[in-house]
C-alpha cells in the first residue's frame, strides 16, 4: 500500500515537471510573438553576410602602451 503512494507522488511530480516545461515553452513563444509585433525581432544573419563583414579590417588608431621602467632604470650610473 505504501509503495503505491510513493509511486503516485512520483507520477504527480513528473506531471508537474512536464506541465511547467510546456507552460515555459508557451510563454517563450508569446514573448517571441510580442517581439515580432513591436518590431524587435531578432534578425537572422547568414554566413555570407558574416564573411563579407569580416573581410574589411577596421582601421583604429590605438596609441602604443607606455614602456614601464625596469629595476635597472631606477639606478642611474
Summarize the helices and strands and which ones pair or pack.
Layout: H1 2-37, H2 47-55, H3 71-74
Low-confidence region ranges: none
The proportion of residues forming helix, as a percent range, comes to: 55-70%
- The computed structural class is mainly alpha
Taking the sheet with the most strands, its summary is: none
Number of helices: 3
Rg: 30 Å
Distance between the termini: 94 Å
Beta strand %: under 5%
| Series of H and E elements | HHH
- Shape descriptor reads elongated
Give the overall pLDDT as a whole number.
76
* Number of β-strand runs: 0
Features:
single chain; 77 residues; mainly alpha; 3 helices; 0% strand; elongated
How would you characterize this protein structure?
- By secondary structure, the protein is an all-alpha fold.
- It has a domain at 1-52.
- It is built from three helices and no strands.
- The radius of gyration is 30 Å and the shape is elongated.
- The mean pLDDT is 76.
Amino acid at each position: 500500500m505504501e509503495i503505491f503512494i510513493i509511486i503516485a507522488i512520483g507520477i504527480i511530480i513528473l506531471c508537474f515537471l512536464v506541465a511547467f516545461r510546456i507552460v515555459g515553452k508557451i510563454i517563450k513563444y508569446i514573448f517571441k510573438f510580442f517581439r515580432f509585433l513591436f518590431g524587435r525581432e531578432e534578425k537572422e544573419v547568414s554566413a555570407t553576410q558574416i564573411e563579407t563583414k569580416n573581410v574589411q579590417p577596421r582601421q583604429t588608431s590605438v596609441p602604443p602602451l607606455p614602456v614601464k621602467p625596469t629595476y635597472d632604470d631606477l639606478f642611474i650610473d
